[in-house]
UniProtKB/TrEMBL annotation:
The lineage of its organism: Eukaryota, Fungi, Fungi incertae sedis, Mucoromycota, Mortierellomycotina. Its main location: mitochondrion. InterPro entries: ATP_synth_F0_gsu_mt. This is ATP synthase subunit g, mitochondrial. It is found in: Mitochondrion membrane. One of its GO terms (cellular component) is mitochondrial membrane. Belongs to the ATPase g subunit family. The gene is ATP5L.
Length: 118
């Protein structure tokens, strides 16, 4: 039990020691983001912009149903779309690795080890 207390106290000390720099860096990042937001004249999208995006998406979906639309796309556009899809898939995989905290598989107990508990 004494070892657990030592580990907990050293962990608490480490977290306390790191909290200052983490908070400071978060505040700096927030200020930088605020300055970029102001300088670039950024603003949340308006209702008209949402409607324009909706109309554009609907137009794309309707045109995608036509075979002639797909015939008019160049080889470079197909390659670009494939690269974007590969990039999105890579980000998904990185998110999965971060989420499960393991490169391969999930830490699931087998049915045999579960039965041993009962």
């Amino acid at each position: 039990m004494n070892n657990v207390n030592k580990i907990l106290s050293s962990t608490a000390a480490a977290v306390t020691k790191l909290s200052g720099p983490v908070v400071y860096n978060a505040k700096v990042a927030g200020q930088v983001a605020k300055q970029v937001y102001i300088r670039e004249g950024m603003a949340p999208p308006t209702g008209a912009q949402f409607e324009a995006a909706k109309e554009s998406t609907l137009k794309f979906v309707k045109s995608a149903r036509s075979a002639s639309t797909w015939k008019n796309i160049s080889k470079e556009q197909y390659i670009g779309a494939g690269l974007v899809a590969a990039e999105a898939y890579a980000f998904f995989l990185v998110g999965e690795i971060i989420g499960r905290r393991n490169i391969v598989g999930y830490g699931v107990e087998s049915a045999d080890s579960h039965d041993a508990h009962h």
